[in-house]
Amino acid sequence: MDNERIKNKFDDIGDKIDFMIEFCQELQQENKKLVLKIRNLESDLDTKSEAEKQFSGQDALIQSKIDGLLKKLNYFSNSSPGEHLSNL
Hints:
Layout: H1 2-78, H2 81-87
C-alpha cells in the first residue's frame, strides 16, 4: 500500500512537471512572437518619425515661402501707385 501511494505521488509530481514544461514552452513561443511584434512596431515608429521630420521640414519651408509672399504683398499694398511700375 505504501508503494502504491509513493507511485501515485511520483506520477502526480511527473504530471505537474510535464505541465510546467509545456507551460514554459508556450510562454517562450509567446515571448518570441511579442519580441517580433515589438521589433516591427519599433521599425514602424522609426519610419513614421522620419516621415514626420520630413513633413516638419517641408512645413517650415512652406511657412517661410508664405511669409515672404505676405511681406511682398504688404509692401505692394503699402507703396504708392507709381512705385509698382518701377519694380516690374
